Amino acid sequence: MLESYLNSPVTRRRLRTGLAADHIDAFADWLYIQGYRPTCINNLLRSFAGWTDWMLAVGFTAQNLLAGFEACKLALKQKQRVRYSRGSNHYSVTAASLFIRFLQHQGELPLPATAPSGSELWPLLGAFRSWMRKHRGLTDTTLDAYERILTGFLDALGRRDSARLRLQ
Question: DSSP strand E in 88-163: where?
């Protein structure tokens, strides 16, 4: 419940009348379930209220949250940072991204499409990962770092030339 996490009656009213009004109580509870502390939830909800105010001010609605989120990020890149500004800022974008993730977990928004891994695009890279894990004992974290580098190399090399590469 929103009252458990947010002290300001003005901010509670802004959230209850804003474009996220239908989901705001469940969102606050979801943040708590995810392990956020009450103080952090308070700050996130205050920042989220700034984002919803900005969304309404520029004409976005609850039906186009994702487009509004991208427009907000673009607007922030184009303007100079103002400390302690109300409305859209770095913190409000963070809170909005959590709200979008919440809606995705609730099935209200589609989950983001995942890009194919480097091993799927380059079978040679999959074989390299397997060999390095088996014979050198590398962890997935290290192999992921190697994969980012090698994927860039293979992309620069091109598919035709990299197809000629074979394991010895």
Answer: none
